[in-house]
Amino acid sequence: MEEKKKKKVVIVTGGTGLVGHGILLFLEKNPRPTEHWVFLSSSDGDLRDLQSTKNIFEKHRPTHVIHLAASVGGLFKNMRRKVEMFRDNMSINDNVLLCCKEYKVEKCISCMSTCIFPDEIKYPMDETMIHLGPPHPSNEGYAYAKRMVDILNRAYNEQYGEGCKYTSVVPTNVFGPYDNFNVEDSHVIPGLIHKCFLSVREKQQKMIVYGSGKPKRQFIYSLDLGALLVWSLDHYHDVLPLILSVGADAEVSISEAVKEITIAMGFQGELVFDTTKADGQFRKTASNKKLLSMYPVRG
Q1: Burial letters 5-20, b for 16+ CB under 10 A, else e
Q2: pLDDT tens for residues 174-217?
Q3: How far, in Å, CA of 282 to CA of 217, rounded?
Q4: Active site residue 142
Q5: CA 257/CA 248 separation, integer angstroms
Q6: With 0-12 CB in 10 A as exposed, 13-18 as middle and 19+ as buried, what is 85?
Q7: What's the Cα-to-Cα distance from 66 to each of 18, 106, 198, 269, rounded to whole Å?
Q8: Which candidate in 103, 142, 210, 236 is catalytic?
């Protein structure tokens, strides 16, 4: 019994999604036999409900938490469902962090997103700029709720001290296996892959891409992000957020991304950019200088 209490128990909320699978696949290649990892899904409980969240913490008694769970979607879902995106994410984050305190979790790392940064800002963005202005109106419900994670992390740390080591990371656009490929509600890469798949399967002459294709994004592969999250759990101890990203020079336009996808999937028809559809935020270029100053880059 005493041995079990000392064992490091890590729960990963939202553990069966894109980023959770990135962590799981990393751990399969880099096992940590002295630790017990639990990858939670929505079937384990509703994190919007406090009692349900407490039941999860009571069952697993985690020493560490990687908090990935969120109500998420692409540009058009964020525009359609601002109220739900705000309320659901506020509830999820509040409940998880409260339970971290009540169950004496040693460390919690929450996952945010570069879409929380101000719409009008100097590029590349860094960790000090999150609260310097309003986010893009298209995703303000989600963005403001996610910003509050940073506020709560600092508040818990200031009020309760070393017993509440909570921090956050800010990845850029993530893609990889086990993503949500729904054409309407997904993020850009999986949505384009699905759309291209349908165009190839149905032998369409044209593929419609929403927006102008001009906005630029940085993309990070989910397995790389998984490795960085595990590293952060071990080595990142600052309460202030940490951007997890490729460099600003790796930014690509949506039109460049879709062309690479069509080449890879063999679509030979015409690409048509539907400029009547919203582009969303034009840029979200983030700096990874803080990460590079701490993370050992392998040659």
Answers
A1: eeeebbbbbbbbbbbb
A2: 999 998 888 777 778 998 999 999 999 999 999 999 899 999 99
A3: 8
A4: yes
A5: 16
A6: buried
A7: 14, 11, 35, 43
A8: 142
